[in-house]
Amino acid sequence: DADVTQTPRNRITKTGKRIMLECSQTKGHDRMYWYRQDPGLGLQLIYYSFDVKDINKGEISDGYSVSRQAQAKFSLSLESAIPNQTALYFCATSDSASGGPTDTQYFGPGTRLTVL
Amino acid sequence: GQNIDQPTEMTATEGAIVQINCTYQTSGFNGLFWYQQHAGEAPTFLSYNVLDGLEEKGRFSSFLSRSKGYSYLLLKELQMKDSASYLCAVRDWDRGSTLGRLYFGRGTQLTVWP
Predict the structure, then answer these.
(1) Which of B4, B17, B60, B73 has the fewest CB atoms within 10 Å, measured from its CB?
(2) Closest CA of chain B from A42, distance in Å
(3) Which residue is closest to A51 within chain B, CA to CA?
């Protein structure tokens, strides 16, 4: 089984709809992240959470919200989807207490979201 | 802020060596990562440098010069499967954190020809 899972893997929705993307991990990591990736652009950080009680905005948080329901679960919501939120969304996790290259981020398989 | 610059595209032939450069400017450098990303897939971790010098891992090596704000990823004995986007990411100190968060470059799309 994959260590970091994302649901759904693909989603097509209409402008104005509220949608939620979910991320779960079995790695036991304390930190979780949501990124979006647009063609030709790098990964842009939307929100990140260093533990269950810690939520931080990233570079492009407007129009998004998150919930860290448990250490293993981190959800991203689009309150009212708009076409320019069409992108590939990745969840990632990292372990602040790991040895070796500390805080290496491990990515889920991604969710392809299309807003019509 | 953080400025991370890497070439948009590179091409090479199978069996060759290619070097992908990355330059960066950060306010509180705390490590540099390289990730590989095949089209439509998740980025996967390749290498990490926090001290100056070369880190070698099989066919892949990564170099860092903190004084120059410069890193490169060296891929040897190229294979077709190495065709992918290579992302340079810099970790910068973050408020209240002992480690920081990552800032990604736009990626270098490498195409390996037979």
Answers:
(1) B17
(2) 4
(3) B97
